[in-house]
Specification:
Blueprint: H1 16-34, H2 47-54, E1 55-58, H3 63-76, E2 80-85, E3 90-98, H4 102-111, E4 119-133, E5 136-149, E6 154-159, H5 163-182
Antiparallel strand pairs: 1-5, 2-3, 3-4, 4-5, 5-6
Helix pairs in contact: 3-5
Length: 184
């Protein structure tokens, strides 16, 4: 091979695979490094803020009607009522949601590995405390989820703290109270 000043070596004409590797690296590098950038963590939520999210006041002194409305909403949403005590103003309910997708079922059947673990169920537990508060009825509801895998092991538990979930629930209870009062 003649030596001349324009010959760079074997990398002068990169192969398809080296171009593919370089292109993939150029695309993946920004994605990988962006995961390392911290946007600053928000301060932990206080107990007072949690109570504010979970608590709602209804403009009625009829705690029994509020409790009945809550039971109706929970049942409409697919919850099983585990306990309801009017004297204590206590409701507890739960439901399970299947997390396994059709694709996941297919892959599990394809792998046929009895030791393969995947997310299977999410148990959602609700507890509510209903009490008179002056000329209103005060309600505090808390939602908690427990994610379980295919062998029944609990993978994670968490308290639900998204304000919108509670607002949506209380809106449904308000409508149910209205329907009960209007006897619709």
């Amino acid at each position: 091979m003649p030596l001349n000043k324009f010959y760079i070596g074997p990398c002068m004409y990169p192969s398809f695979f080296s171009r593919l590797l370089m292109g993939t690296t150029c695309l993946a590098l920004p994605l990988l490094t962006s995961a390392c950038i911290s946007e600053g963590h928000s301060p932990p939520i206080t107990q007072s803020e949690i109570r504010d999210i979970q608590t709602h006041h209804f403009a009625t002194t009829d705690t029994k009607a509020v409790m009945k409305a809550m039971l109706n909403v929970l049942q409409d949403e697919g919850y099983n009522i585990n306990n309801a005590n009017l004297e204590l103003g206590l409701i507890s309910a739960s439901k399970s949601e299947d997390l396994e997708t059709p694709t996941g079922k297919f892959l599990h059947a394809l792998l046929a590995d009895p030791n393969h673990r995947f997310l299977k169920l999410e148990d959602i537990n609700v507890s509510a405390n209903i009490s008179s508060h002056g000329n209103q009825t005060k309600v505090r509801v808390s939602f908690q989820t427990a994610t379980k895998d295919n062998v029944g092991g609990t993978v994670a538990t968490r308290q639900v703290l998204q304000r919108g979930i509670y607002q949506n629930f209380y809106n449904k209870v308000s409508k149910s109270i209205f329907f009960e009062e209007s006897e619709i």
